[in-house]
Here is the input.
Amino acid sequence: MGAVGSAAQTANGPPAAKVSIGIPVYNGAQFLAASLESLLAQTYEDIEFVISDNGSTDGTEAICREFAARDGRIRYLRADTNRGASWNYRNVVQQTSGPYFKWATHDDLLAPTYIERCVEVLDAAPAGVALVYPRTRIIDGDGNVVRDYDDNLDIRAKTPHERLRLLVGNIVMANASFGLIRRTALARSRLLDKFPSADYVMMAEFALFGEFWEIPEFLFFRREHEAMSRKANPSATEAAEWFEPGSSKNATGREFWRLFVEHLRSIHHARLDPVEKAKCYAGFLGVWTRRYRRAMVDEIFVGRQGRHRRSTTPQGS
Here is the structure.
């Protein structure tokens, strides 16, 4: 797995913030201001914010510049063209340096104590905890609460193979990937790779590194709306373009097969002893085939080209 680059530590200036929040965005003007307001309203203040704008063509740039002028903790970076979600999500990691990192989207909201509570828990946790995340409430386009969502990813098993088995067996929505993550865990992952549902592979790599701790408070408000990525890009080719522009020509529609191979690749590259690695392979193969065997068969023999996981593993917006 490749190492994660980071922004240089400030040698002569003020010390780097403890928490880095990266906000990748492309044409997110509809909800961006509300999202940024919720970030700036955090009770914990030792935060650096980096907004990476993927060449937006709507009002995103003006909103970002307005907020950057308001708060000196915000850095606004803008690409000339849309380089895809994979590049953008990686860029905000590479442009930050705090020991704790969080991705924030342009449309979700955080309770004011989100970062404060996550820092408290992660500070008190052993180094073997890769990330912490709070409970999730689903909201609609108007900000109304639709339902509470149980992520069921409080994974405190002590061995990589147990954690991987629990993650693959339980994950549906990847909300925990928007929790507070140790940079050491990021550095041992591929981050968000260039294929649909790469966030699930990234989560598996985090689980190989360490535990996931859930904070039993509803502090994350995930917005579901018609313009969110998984609804706006429902086909295999559209999803491929969202992650990596120009990659749709190679899209096969066999998303579960690709994810199967990529999980195996993650295990292969993990820094584990041979016995533990063998247990990871065995545990993964068992739970994956039980959960996704039918979808994989459909991808071969039925020739379905749609996004199967819309009903099983919907991606983050």
